[in-house]
Design a protein that fits this description.
With 157 residues, this protein is of the alpha+beta class. The protein is built from 4 helices and 6 strands.
Length: 157
């Protein structure tokens, strides 16, 4: 599919999401592909043309997980331990997902700029399910926040 064709194919998605109250806009992404992007209070949304449908990704970063720590060295150590824990946690989830949210998990990382946990969930829906996209996005955003909270709690223990 050409770049122009993919942008045209995504235009109905912009309209569906806007009609549902999302601030959706077409964007030429870093991967040199067109996508529909939305920014919400619950996270960010990217919709691309996938292999056989719409690839829907929701992601967010929870900033400043250890900012309440006054000692700079101690905060640095806690962040380093969090990064190591996230690597092990991501490997565990990929090898044996425990919940439906974890089955959707496509990426888990420590964001150096925000000093917090980043989580990305992704799923692909058929082209025919385009009108249901607002419900899919809302559900994924809710699941994203729940998973992010659980991961933060685990890192803070």
């Amino acid at each position: 599919m050409s770049l122009r064709d993919s942008r045209v194919a995504l235009e109905p998605i912009v309209q569906v999401l806007r009609a549902a109250g999302f601030w959706a806009y077409p964007l030429y992404g870093e991967d040199s592909r067109w996508l529909v992007a939305c920014e919400t209070e619950s996270g960010r949304v990217d919709v691309r043309i996938g292999s056989d449908g719409y690839l829907v990704e929701v992601w967010d970063v929870s900033p400043g997980l250890f900012f309440d720590e006054e000692d700079e060295r101690r905060r640095s150590v806690r962040e380093r331990l969090a990064r190591m824990t996230l690597v092990r946690l991501a490997e565990t989830i990929r090898s044996a997902p425990l919940t439906p949210d974890e089955e959707l998990l496509s990426h888990l990382w420590w964001d150096e700029q925000e000093h917090g946990v980043g989580v990305r969930l992704s799923t692909e829906i058929p082209f025919s399910a385009g009108p249901m996209l607002p419900e899919v996005v809302s559900s994924l955003l809710e699941r994203l926040q729940e998973l992010l909270t659980r991961i933060e709690e685990r890192l803070l223990d």
